[in-house]
Amino acid sequence: MRLTTASGRRLVAGIPILWLLVLFLIPFIIVFRISFSEVRLAIPPYTPLLSWRHGSPVLQLHWSAYEFLFTDPLYVSSYLYSLKVAAVSTLCCLGLGYPMAYAIARSDAAMRPVLLMLIVLPFWTSFLLRVYAWIGLLKNNGVINNVLMYLGVIHHPLALLQTDFAVYIGIVYSYLPFMILPLYANLEKHDGTLLEAAADLGARPLRAFVRVTLPQSLAGIVAGSLLVFIPAVGEYVIPTLLGRTDQIMIGRVLSDEFFENRDWPVASAVAIVILLLLVVPIMLFQRLERRELEAAR
Amino acid sequence: MRARGLFTRTALVLGLMFLYLPILSMIVFSFNNSRLVTVWDTAHSPTLKWYLALMGNEQILRAAWLSIRIALISASAAVVLGTLAGMALARLGAFRGRMLLAGMTTAPIVMPEVITGLSLLLLFVAMQQLIGWPKGVGAVTITLAHITFCMAYVTVVVQSRLSGFDEALEEAAMDLGARPLRVFLRITLPLILPAIASGWLLAFTLSWDDLVITQFVAGPGSSTLPMVIFSKVRFGVTPDVNALATIMVLIVATGIAISTAWMRYRQQRRVRDLQLAAAANL
């Protein structure tokens, strides 16, 4: 629709832009600003960047929050651990999600909406409660250990809860639909005749898959992986409920700095460094998303 | 070919079991008498006592009521803002700020929640210092935060629905002399209504469910349901939470069943209308 009235156009685009400027972009600038302050006992609990001395403004940039991040091993190890957990979980999600998306894309046309509905349905029930459900399954006297002991597979309960394994399970479980949906959207569009051509030319199924299907689905793989990886790096609920107590993820570090230590500058610096780590994946995701939406036109 | 079909199908079945096993276990153990949650007490189960305990839990009921009100307002406001943003991106062509708007509507979807939460709280604190509003944190700041992250999802849903439609219909109405507002009300709105409806439901669910962002922007008197649940389950499993989960699953399942039946009914009616029209033309 070509809105002819300029004021109408301005209103349609202007209202959401204004809203997001105030409640999405400016907040990041504030975080950035506070990360260069020092903590102090006052309201608000940080030093101002600009102060007036002898009638002229003085800019006071403090690097102490960042120095703190790079000298205390807790922060560096939390960042590395978060990247590792997010990467492993993303790979597991891909390993499970790809064949699932493939099976749905190849199933009868009548079955596809039902199967997709089954994938999305858990997403509509509370994320928090679904993560919580895994406590009951994984703990020492939980369902999995009880079943394994009943079957005689093990004689002592396995320590499953509060391990890396539990965090991987939790992330894969919560983010699986985000991996499957873009993969399915991609795989569904594939032209079956290409695979037939490959078969006619003598390619074995696996070779045909690697040479034909896999390269074609690359955009779906990247989109799904980014949708899992980026939020997983900053994940808070899953590692807090299921994860280790001796090694925490960076999202928890940020939250603890803010709520327990009340150190706003360090919490802000932690946020800025997470953003710096994620800026490339986020921009990649935006570019893919834009191309996808424009291709639909 | 056959072997791979078997492999992917097995993965699908196992994956679905993986998705539903935890939900099923919560439902089963919500009827368990034992406080130990995962040990089935055969003598006294099934029982409804955790459901009764839930109904008498003042704290949970109050939090649920607050969450419902916040989700209703947030979803409705997010739908308005998200529809505007989706229309601007899909229909306004190139305009100043397009890249900015596109970036600001996709970023919140993947942004780690701790960062969004922290930045919003710092904004509210700064605003309060500068203009004296909002006064403290609570239901108002939670709602503002929820509108912001929910509208990003609505934008994507509306934009992709609009992108799937030809602009010819709207242009035809324009050529026939309809004013922009009329074109929107008579042509565009009916076309994107399904997207708006699913966007609203999505926004409601996201707002109802959010914990991390809410924790940052909530005040002492404004505990939402996820906050109450989180503080309970952080220190172990509690049976009444299982009952709560079962009720939520039941509500969602009922909603899905009704909407599926409704869509099937409309589909059937359309087929019948088409047949009648075809018969009339003969």
Low-confidence stretches of chain A: none
- Please, how many domains of chain A? 1
The CATH class of chain A is Mainly Alpha
Look at the structure and name the CATH superfamily of chain A.
MetI-like
Description of the molecule:
The complex is a heterodimer of chains A (297) and B (282). By secondary structure, chain A is mostly helical. Chain A has one domain (72-295): MetI-like fold. Chain A contains 13 helices and 2 strands, in the order αββαααααααααααα. In chain A, β1 and β2 form a beta hairpin. Chain A is globular, with a radius of gyration of 24 Å. The two termini of chain A are 13 Å apart. Chain B is mainly alpha-helical. Chain B folds into 2 domains: 26-56 and 237-272, no CATH class; 60-225, MetI-like fold (Orthogonal Bundle), CATH 1.10.3720.10. In chain B, α2 (49-55) packs across α11. Chain B is globular and about 75 Å long. Chain B starts with a helix and ends with a helix. The mean pLDDT of chain B is 89. The chains are: A mainly alpha (297), B mainly alpha (282). At the A-B interface, α1, α3, α4, α5 and α9 of A face α1, α3, α4, α5 and α6 of B.
Helix-strand layout with pairing:
The complex is a heterodimer of chains A (297) and B (282).
Chain A: H1 6-34, E1 50-53, E2 56-59, H2 64-71, H3 73-106, H4 112-124, H5 127-138, H6 143-150, H7 164-187, H8 192-200, H9 205-216, H10 218-233, H11 237-242, H12 250-259, H13 264-295
Antiparallel strand pairs in A: 1-2
Chain B: H1 2-29, H2 49-55, H3 58-91, H4 98-110, H5 113-131, H6 139-163, H7 168-175, H8 180-209, H9 212-217, H10 225-233, H11 239-281
Helix pairs in contact in B: 1-11, 2-11, 3-6, 3-8, 3-10, 4-6, 6-8, 7-8
